[in-house]
Structures are given as C-alpha cells and as structure tokens.
Design a protein that fits this description.
The complex is a heterodimer.
Chain A (H helix, E strand, L loop, with lengths): L1 E6 L3 H10 L6 E7 L11 H5 L13 H6 L3 E4 L3 E5 L4 E4 L4 E3 L2 E4 L3 E3 L12 E3 L3 H10 L5 E5 L3 H12 L3 E5 L12 H13 L3 E3 L4 E5 L6 E4 L4 E3 L2 E4 L3 E3 L2 H5 L8 E3 L10 E3 L4 E3 L8 H14 L13 E3 L7 E5 L7 E7 L4 E8 L2 E8 L5 H10 L21 H5 L5 E3 L4 E2 H11 L4 H8 L9 H11 L10 E3 L2 E4 H10 L5 H8 L8 H12 L13 H5 L2 E2 L5 E3 L10 H13 L4 E4 L5 E6 L4 H8 L11 E6 L2 H4 L7 H12 L8 E6 L13 E6 L2 E6 L2 E2 L3 E2 L2 E6 L2 H18 L6 H8 L1 H7 L5 H17 L28
Parallel strand pairs in A: 1-2, 1-7, 2-3, 7-19, 9-16, 10-11, 10-16, 11-12, 18-20, 34-35, 35-36
Antiparallel strand pairs in A: 4-5, 5-6, 8-17, 13-14, 14-15, 21-22, 22-25, 23-24, 24-25, 26-27, 28-29, 30-31, 31-33, 32-33, 36-37, 37-40, 38-39
Chain B lengths: L3 E8 L8 E6 L2 E7 L4 E5 L13 E3 L2 E3 L6 E3 L5 E3 L8 E2 L1 E4 L2 E7 L2 H6 L1
Antiparallel strand pairs in B: 1-11, 2-3, 3-4, 4-9, 5-6, 6-7, 7-8, 10-11
The chains are: A alpha/beta, B mainly beta.
Amino acid sequence: MKQLVVVGNGMAGMACVEQILKHTPRFDITVFGDETHVNYNRVLLSSVLAGEKAADDIVLHPLDWYREHGIRLHVGVRIVDVDPNARTVTGNDGGVTRYDTLLLATGSTAWLPPIAGLDKDGVLVFRTLDDTRELMRRSGPDTRAVVIGGGLLGLEAARGLQAQGCQVTVVHLMPTLMERQLDPDGGHYLLGKMEDLGIRVLLGRTTTAILGNGHVEGVALSDDSCLEADLVVVAAGIRPNVDLAHKAGLHVNRGIVVNDFMETSSPDVFAVGECVEHNGICYGLVAPLFEQGKVLAATITGNKGPTYTGTVQAAKLKIMGVEVFSAGDWSEQNSEPVRYEDRALGVYKKVTLRDGRLAGVILVGDTSDSHRYMEWLRTNADLTDQRRHVLFPPPAADAGLDAAEMADSATVCGCVGVTKGAIICAIHEQGVNTLSQLKEATRASTGCGSCSGLCQELLRAVAPEFEEDARTVICACVPFAEDRLRDILRSQRLKSVQEVLDIYGNGQGCEVCKPALSYMVDMLWCGDHAEDRSARFINDRVHANIQKDGSFSVVPRMRGGVTSPAELRRIADVAEKYSVRMVKITGSQRIDLLGIRKEDLPKVWADLGMPSGQAYTKGVRMVKTCVGTDFCRFGVQDSTTVGIEMERRLEQLYTPHKVKMGAVGCPRNCAEATVKDIGLVGQEGSWQVVVGGAAGKHVRKADLLTTVVTSEEALEAAELFFQYYRESANYLERTYDFVERLGIEKVRKDTVYAPDNIQQGLRDRLHKSKARARDPWQEGGTPKHPTQFIPLHPVENTLA
Amino acid sequence: MSEHRWLRITECHNIPPREGRAVTVGRHDIAIFNLGDRFLATANRCPHRGGPLCDGIVTGTSVVCPLHTWKISLESGAVERPRTEACVRTYPTRVENGMVLLAVPMDPRAEHAA
C-alpha cells in the first residue's frame, strides 16, 4: 500500500484524512503532530478559556478513531526536514519516515510584531490548547492582562481572560475593532459591547515595548503612556507555516501555492488548510478547510475532478452575548449599502448589494439572519424581487417556513459542510429524532454550533418523533436551559440578575425568570454577591407571606416543632397586641400569625424574639419530629435532637423549591418522615435517610438514599443531598420531581457514593453559603432599604 | 375633566430601582414605581382581586400583581394579561430637584367639605 504521511494533526489535516478514508485506493497513513493532543476543535479554544467548555469537550478525533482506521499517530513530534529526492521526512526526535505521498497541513503560527521585550516571562500567544491552559494557569482575580490586537482572536482571548477573573485591556493598532470584518460603524457598536462587558479598549495605539525585569510588568504604548500588566497576550495575526514547503522545493508565496485541484508545484506533495494560498488568498477560518479537504481527498486518491474555487469569507465572533457576523465584501465602493441601526438596542446591520446580488453583510447585536445571507452569498442569488426584504424578511406564515424555503443543496452547517438534504436523509434513513443524534449521524452542528437552531428546526419539521432536548428554558426573557445558564453565570462570573438579563437576555426579565435568576446567583456564589431585591417576589423582599388581602402571615422558627412556655407567652402577647386575626397551628408543627400589616412586621418580629421560620420562601421550611427516645416508649433514636440539629444546619438557605423535612425515632413514622423532601427514619441501631417524598398535590413515598449507623452520618448524608439538590435541580422543581427525573441511583452515585473530593466540594459550598446566611428577620431592625416595610409619607398631601 | 394638582411626594431615593412603593394621597391609594430613568404611578389596586401592585415584580414598563400575576402596563394602566378590558388609573409624574411629584385629581367632595 502507498505510504501517506500527514504533517499536522489539526483540523485541516484530519478533515482531509476523513475524506480520504471515504475514497479508494486506500493509503497506509502516518500522522505527525507537534502538539501532544489528539485533534481538537481549535475554533472552540476561546470557549475553553472562557470556562464554557472543558478541554475534553472539544476533542474531534479521540485516539480510538485513529486506531479504528489503522492510522499511526505520532504526537509531540515536529517534522523538521523534508528530503524530496529520498522522499523522507525527519522528526525532531531524529526519526526518518519514508513517504509516497506527503500532505502538509502545517497550519499557521501567531505572528509576533517587532516589539522589544517579547521574550519576557508572561508574554504568551493564544493558539493551542497548551497556550490556553497556560493562560488559565496564569489568570486570576488580581491579574492585569493586556491583549495586543483587537481582531477576532484578540477579543475572544480578552473575554476569556476576563472570565478567568483578569482585568483586561485590549490595545489595538487601528482606529476601530475587527476592521477586517467590520466597517467603522460596526466596529463602534462592537466597542460599546466590549466596554459594557467591562473590557477596556485602547484604539489607534501600538505597543512599543514590553516592560519588566525578566517578568512582564507592563507595556509601553506609542502615545508614551504605560499600562501595568502581569500578563500580555499577543494576538496580532497569524502567518502560514511554510518552512517545510520551502525545503520540499514547493512554490511558496505567502502560503503554499495550490491550484483549483489543490495541487502544489510537486506531484508528490500536497497541502491543505491555513498553510496554503489559493488564488492569492490565505484563509484563517474553518469553513475553507473542509471544502479544500474534500477536493484534495479526491485529487490525492487519483479521483481528480472536483475543484476548489474559493470560499466566501465569513466570520463570527464567539463571545456569548456579543453577536458579530461578517461575510463577503461589505465595502461601499461600487455597491449599494442598506443599513439599519438601533443604538439603544445595540443592533447594527448593513448589507451591500451589487447588480441586485448580495456582496457583503455585517451584523452586530443580532446575527439570527446570518444563514440567509450566507446562502445568498454562496448561491449568488438574484435579490431583485426581494429588495424590500433584504434586512427584514416578511413575517413567516408558519414556523417551519425558513427551513422549507431552503433548497436541499443549501448548506446548513458551514463548518462541517452538511446540507439540508444530507440532514433530511439522515433523519429518514437513520431514524434521527434529536439534535444529539443528528450530531452523531452527520456531525452537523459540531463545529462552531451556530447552526443548532436551524438543525433543530429541520428536525422539528421532518423527524417523525422529534424530541426537544430534555432541558427546558426558564422563559423567553433568557432563552437558555437552566444548566446552561448555571454554567454561563459561573464561567462569566455574573453576580447580578440585571447583569445576566442585560447580557444574555432581553434586559427586562419577568416574574418568572427574575426569582429563578435570583436563586441561581445566590446559590452559585454562595451568597457572596449583592442581592437585587427588586428581582425577588414580595415575600422575599419583606420576609413574610402575602395573603389575599395584601396583609402578611408570620411564622417564627420553632426547630423540630419544639417550643417553650416563654415563647408561647410572647406569641400570645403579639397576637393580642397586633390584633392578629387568626392564630393557627400549621401542618409543620409551628404557629402561624395571620393578617399582619407590612409596616408592623419589624415590630412583630422584635416582640417575638424568635428567628424567621421562612414559611414564605423557596427555602428550608422545617424539620418535623416526634418525641423519640426522650419520652416515647417505642423510640429507638433521638429524633428531636437530630431533627433540631438538621434544621440548624440547613435553615436560612434558599433552595430551588421549598424543602420540608422530618425526623422520626422509630419506623412507626409518627412525624411522617417518609413523605418529606428529606426524612431521617430511626431504626434500632441505624438511620435510614430518605429523599424525594411528597404529601401535597402528589403523594410519593421517599426513596431510600442510604442507611447509616450514627446520627452524624445521617446528618452528613442529608447535607450532601441537600446541596446536590440546590446545585442541580431546576428552579421550582421539588425534590420529588428532581429525584424522579434523575433516578435515585444517579442521586446516590452523585452524593453518598461520590468520590471524596466531590462530596467535599458539596460540603464546602454548603458551609460557605451557610456561613453567609443570616436570619432575615434581623432586617426588621436594620432594613435593607429605608422604605422596605413602610408606605411613603407624602411631603405634600393636601388636595384642597 | 377634573383639575389636577402637582404634589411633592417623596425623595427619589426612597424608591429603589425596579421596585414600587405605596402612598396615600387624599382618597387615592397610589403605587409609584422607579423604572431607573423615570417614575410611573398607578392606582395601587389590581382590578382583579385588589392585590397591592406596589408589591409586584416590575418587568419592562409593566408590573405583575403579586396575588395572581395579572400584568398591568404602568404607562397606560391597561391590563396586559389576561385579555380583559379592565384597567387601572394612572397618575402623571415628574421629577424636580430629586423629588418625585404626582399629579393628583382635585377631589370635588374634599373641596366642598373644606
């Protein structure tokens, strides 16, 4: 078999190899990669840096793939020499490998502008997974980072570093950002968005020197100013790697010159990806790699025929909440520009038309139409009839229209190159019903992921048993699934509800998402954030339960349902003093005082001298107990002491929905622990910890989480489950739905059977939240806001 | 149309952003809301079951009643959810020297009494 040696284990090389494997004749393939990783999606490194994805998530070809196809993979080996006469390549490990056919997929490297001091420690580029890891290692809350270059990569690096906690300044040579993709107006809109994110941008300045003694301490700029810095990232552009091509005697300009068949000047040596130059253009984006790879695979396997005629240049900024798309030639020379802008919304759109056809497009702030424009560019469609609708399509009569209007040959996934026809084919022939199955079957939407909406739409229209992803969004204001939102908030370090709504939502929010986001922020940051009370329901603004007449009910905490004569006297006094309309024993072994005016709440709390029972909130309600071994002749465990301790450990914390608990001293279950969210059931010599019980709209017997010997072990198991529920349940999901959705086996695996470090993490975060929690009724004496509890007294109040 | 009178009500900072507060002026129970860039005022009584609108969650330029989530436009007083003809009264507002002012209709009966 002929020997094919591939130099470069990146996206271009492996995309081409994937295509080669589809052809005959077969090659014996050897791949050299100088990075020590399998092929990963370089485009998504910015998502890794931003903490949105893990390194494992961006792997494109796992080791098994190489094995399955009999490909010999050498990672960590850089090919340093080529001998075209002997047909051999030499690695930096000294190894010599013979080839019949050589494929150069050497990509490009970061270009370093001539700046003094680039060799200092702390000056990095952002090109590889190792670079990314190094950047993450050096980033932290006090790190001052300077990014040199305000292009696509520089801005993504800046946002990623910021997500890692750095204070980031971008220094850009040109007067506007991303000037290769955006006109000055578009760049200006983008500037506003970057600054809104808290990233400082300095335009029209060059970096003249990196300052510092061995390690970076700052940068000097062309306007004679200096910036302090601990970390400098150079993102000033890329250069094709052409050294080997020179050695192989190929024709090289800026890149390795190839023709429409992807042939170089030598019959035995081929090249693909960022290292090549076709028609005078070196591409630095992902879509051309796939198109080139397909053509080259045909040529290299002796099936020469298909031609590569260039790719419409399109770029999309991958910063969540900052939508930027640019494609084609958007210059206004000899073209008719059509624009739309809305400063308040931060939306800017421009298309340029030439001879009634789309020449280029710029979208900032709303890129939802990018697919339509790409299709028009690709097909060079005549838009004369649609002239009135080039910026805003006429409203679709039905939801599936967008998909229905596409031709079967139209590309849905530009990264991997999957057409609508291929997707429909997969749906019919492989029984694809979900987006994840579609990804598996066609690899569509596995590149940048921006076509997932369109894929979803196609599935909805075509698949016989289409299933929405199991995740649901909270509401239309923030259109993300809750687990996704938790990831976003965590990685983007968002600590306020309004910030989340401004960046990822509609800026307004509603009564559904605001309390949900309030919970999420509080839980994720363990209470270490500035709470926005306006996003909370009234009950959580004034710590009492609003009643049908606008009055409030007050339930003091009575841990384990145990009280004292002194407490009861104070409760009786309060009831009389404030003319409480009803005093009610609740189902949770507590006392409810009903009909209290908002302005009386602080006085009532002070007179009671008891902490809040939090009967008004999505939080820890109570632990119902029996008298256990203290008095009961059947009791085998001290349920009151343990129940009171459990209440103390968990009280004052917010939860996705209310949490009611119980502890009983024997299996007779007098305090009904087996229908509680968390129940401790005493046995002779052990405790059963049960979770997910209900006795409300649904009745559900709790599942057994674990059986333990000591009271302390029982409490610890309850804590683990409690924190796990806080972190993983959707807002307003009771434990009984949560446990049923996940299955008790998974719950056990993630809590009581989890490895020590996972358990410790749950405990640490619970304790951190607990350390910051306090009795909300303390606000009676020190209100969060001067008019929190009282109506306004008008300065002027005479209408006469 | 009855006559209005502008009354100085309270200092702006007494109403936190995106929250409402109740105030009683003559016979009028009013909810004033701080929308960040301006203040809006409506009757403090939901047309559904009389819920206190001042205690609702503000969404855009509307408020959601805390009792049964009726949604009311703070600009027009119209009920936006559910579909119904009902509406609440609105009161013109303005800000002067850090003070929120309300235009409240003169009460003819109060005048007679005076």
